[in-house]
Each structure stands twice: as structure tokens, then as C-alpha cells.
Structure prediction request, 456 residues.
Amino acid sequence: MTARVLVVDDIPANTKLLEAKLSAEYFDVITAHNGQAAIELACKEQPDIILLDVMMPIMDGFEVCKTLKSREDVQHIPVVMVTALDQPADRVRGLEAGADDFLTKPVNDLALFSRVRSLVRLKMMTDELRMRQATGRDMGLLSAPYDHAADENGSARILIVEEREEAARRMREVLEPQHRVKVEADRNDAIVSARGGDFDLIIVSLAMAGQEGLRLCSQLRSTPETRGVPILVIVDDGDNPALARALDIGVNDYLMRPIDRNELVARVKTQFKKKRYSDKLKQNLELSVEMAVTDQLTGLYNRRYMSGHLGNLLQDSVDRDKPLSFLIIDIDYFKSINDTFGHDIGDEVLRQFGKRIVSNVRGIDLVCRYGGEEFVVVMPDTDLTFAYTVAERVRQQVADVPFEVGTDDPLKITISIGVTVSEGSSDTPGDLLRRADQALYRAKREGRNRVVADAA
Prediction:
């Protein structure tokens, strides 16, 4: 895996050394020698990850990280602080500033490369969701960007997997004042709990006997229910091979023993925020997909969805040798309603009309607003006679029950309907549309307020 890495250090020799190491691993490296230049380069070049020194003049690494994380255009870029500072309080300060990790010089090459690849891999998944969200916003399907600050102090659901009772108890005591915590000592029990627990974070000890911790991480990443749940592993100090394997499996973060309470809290908070952000992106993606195929006025599927889905329904009817009926419905003289009472009344008529159609057809039938005052009903496993009967029922229900839409008197409305049925494997969606439209045209030409079936 390759990636673009921004290396920030005020000492040229340090940047040269990191640049050489990363370039040998086929990373594309750009460098900056002060905080302000780092911020400008990050905004301009949009690197995949930033390796940031802490001890720099004018603007130190903590301030640079806070600034980057406060900007919407770069806050998603992972930041790894690489520094000579080695105290737990320094790591906590870096994590609280928004850093994704805190590596102490001299940095072990295996740990560095494993961490860079891991964070870049996670960023690529987030970038895909961000790109789709941006498309949704450009199309007007989504509004304001996600507010990261809103999830600063939420309560997470955490699963701790630890064989040693005392170690599990200490972690639980640290986390339970704010979060909901469940502890499992056995890998199989942990899998069962994880699949059904809807957790925001899973903490796994890699010190479990027989490499059970690594096996559990691998299972969690290969199981659909837990694939997207962040995993934080607890690693014995100096066990870089186990850490590298865990990162390669796909864990999100790690904590070295002995565990610092404040660092545990800070890393849990970071992973919880990322999980909430990822969940929101996925939710927005689902919403944008739904909005893209839904008519916003009536809540029915729109023409785009019908056009894309009709071919599948038609093919299915051919495969199962079942008829597929197709109705086009048009509100008679709808323009006069808008001209006389205004578009608000016209919109309410359309909303109520859509509900009347849905209430008179089956759950398996596809009801769409085709455009303007035209609606479409696609009826699987339905012959022309039954489709005609349903169409006539809809027509009569509309004609017999005036519309209560806020006018002085309820509006009496009529509709015209064209009906057709599929004619075998040679039929196309265009053929159905054409025949139904011709039948609708005949219904209007013959006086409206009637159902006409395609005579073919």
C-alpha cells in the first residue's frame, strides 16, 4: 500500500531520515519545517497521513494538531506525533489535541510502517464515505456537515476481552463512570457478545493464552456484524511483532502495558468519536440513496427508481412465466387546480392522491410518481383483467370521495388510467410505457374519468 505522507520537523536531518525510510517503503513524502507551513501544505496537498514533531518553535505540534482538527477540510487526515517526549502525560496531551497516535523517538521502523499503513487503510474507507456524502450535498440531498463536537462527551458501549480478572476490573473501573462496559474472558463468549451487543468499541488483550487475542481480532474483522466496530488492543511493552500483526489484521488502535488510566480514557474517546463520525457518514449515505430514489412531495418512489427497477421486474416475470401489469394514472385537469387554488393546494392533492393509490393496491405493487400529476403502478404476477379491476377501483374511489385539502369546499377530482400487460420475453420497459401511455391517451380522448386497457 502506498500513500502520501507529510513529514513535519524543524530539524532538517530528522525530516531527511524519515523521508528516506518512508521512500524506501514506496511512500510519497512531502516535508514541512514549521507549524504554519505544515498547515498550509496539509490544506493544499491533502496528504493521507501527517507525521508531526512536537517540539518546534513558534507553533508546537500540539497547537498544529489542534488547528488541523478544527478545520473541516483536513480534520479527517490522521496525525501521528513523533517526538522525543516519552511521558504518559505528553501522550495524553497529544491524543486530546486530536492526534491518532504518539510515537516516541527513536521510532521502531516496524511499528512506524505498520501504524502508517493501518491509519492510511482506515482513512481510505472513511474517504470513500466522505466522497459519497459530498456528492449527496452537491446534489442537494444532504445539508450541513457533521458536527464532531456534538459527540465529545457521549456514552459508549464497550466490550472488554481480558482473561486476567484484575486487569479487566481496573479497566472497567476507569471507564464505567462514563461508559457502559461488559467484560468477557473467553474468546468464544466474546464473539457471541460482540455479534449481538451493538458495541461502539471492543478492547482486546493480546496477552491471552495461545494467541487467542489475535485470533479474536481476526474473527471480529471477518464477521459482518462486527466488521465496522473499532478494536483497541492491549499490548505488552516491546511486543512489536504482535502489534504489527494486529495492525495488519485491521485493529484501529493500541495501548501498551502498563496501562496509563488517562491514556486509556483518551484513546477510548478518540475511537468513539471516529465510530460516531463513520456511523453518521454511513447514515447520510443511506439517506442520500433513499432521497435520490424518492419523490419528496409524496414519499413514493420517483421516476429514476422506476426506470431502473422496471427492467428487473420485467425480467423476473419472464423468468417465472408470470404476467406483469403496468398502469399510468393521470389527474384530470390538474393544471386548473393549480391555476385556481395555487400550488400549495395542488401539492396537497398530489400527496393525498398518492396515499389513495397505495391504499388500493397490494404491498408487492410498486407505486411511483412518474412526474407532475402522472403516477405509475407496476403489478407483478398480475394479468390484464385483474389490473383493470384494480385500476377501476382506484378511479371510482377518487371520483366518489372529494379531497379535503383546505379549500372552502372539498375538491371533486377525477383521474384517467391506461393499463397494459407484458407480452413475453421480447417486451422491454419502453414497450410497456409506450402501450400504457397510448391507453391513457385514449382514456383522455374518450372523455377522461375512465380506465382504458391496451388492446394489443
Remarks:
- The chain has a mean pLDDT of 89.
